[in-house]
């Protein structure tokens, strides 16, 4: 049997009401040499019956619940393509996504990761907000990430494709990225090769209560993000050291982390101005107007220390 050129890797957990659209969007791509693998991570809803209807057109694996990272790793292990394209079960792709991704990889053998924008969608499938990420980054991003503690306007899982040879170097996604496999891919792969950003929205990202992307964070979500950012910096530094790569990340360079801490605790006027200046020069945001916007928001919106910061805690 001829080896596929592209592997589509779909991870699913209790998204039986959505996963059919994800699979259909992959089956509808007019690109030769494609295999589709769906790993169900221990769903307890109607996912199995939905997925079994596709048996014969896609490869199916049902496993006990282990988290997104384990599902993505299992899918890669089953795959044979030189290009690995990830898709969350609650998202879907536009026609032409795979052909555009393949063309980008073929144009530059040094690329480790190719991505595109996603159009955010409400649960029922209507568009909302502007395509993400707003800023795009291409080329050698290793220096930028070294100066920003690994933060950049990175794409989400359903927009990411990586070269298998880079996956073989990086190895499976660590278990600590149980619900955020994209953070590993976007944090490690820019140190292994070039990155190409495709400007079009070639996929659709469904926003609901189970994901990270939301307009406003409460206190609990801010703490969760901060813990995740710290863990990611530590995991990245372990990887860089293990592979004798010279770069090292410092959490003090991670402006979103520092701003989140200030949002939780409040700041003095002096600290507010210092954080605003840091936002203006932050290496993680390549777009100057957005850095200016972030600096102004920092100067205006951070709460004063000792006052009610106005962040809600989730209901018990």
What characteristics describe this protein?
Glyco_trans_2-like, 316 residues, globular, single chain, 2 domains, 11 helices, 38% helix, alpha/beta, Spore Coat Polysaccharide Biosynthesis Protein SpsA, Chain A, transferase
Overall description:
One of its GO terms (molecular function) is transferase activity. This is Glycosyl transferase. This protein has 316 residues and is α/β, with parallel strands linked by helices. The protein has two domains: 6-206, Spore Coat Polysaccharide Biosynthesis Protein SpsA, Chain A, CATH 3.90.550; 219-301, no CATH class. Helices cover 38% and strands 18% of the residues. The protein is built from eleven helices and eight strands. Strands 3-2-1-4-7-6-8-5 form an eight-stranded mixed β-sheet, with helices on both faces. Helix 7 packs across helix 8, helix 9 packs antiparallel against helix 10 (269-281) and helix 10 (269-281) runs antiparallel to helix 11. The longest helix has 24 residues, at 219-242. It is globular. It starts with 5 loop residues before the first strand and ends in a 15-residue tail after the last helix. The model has no long low-confidence stretch (mean pLDDT 93).
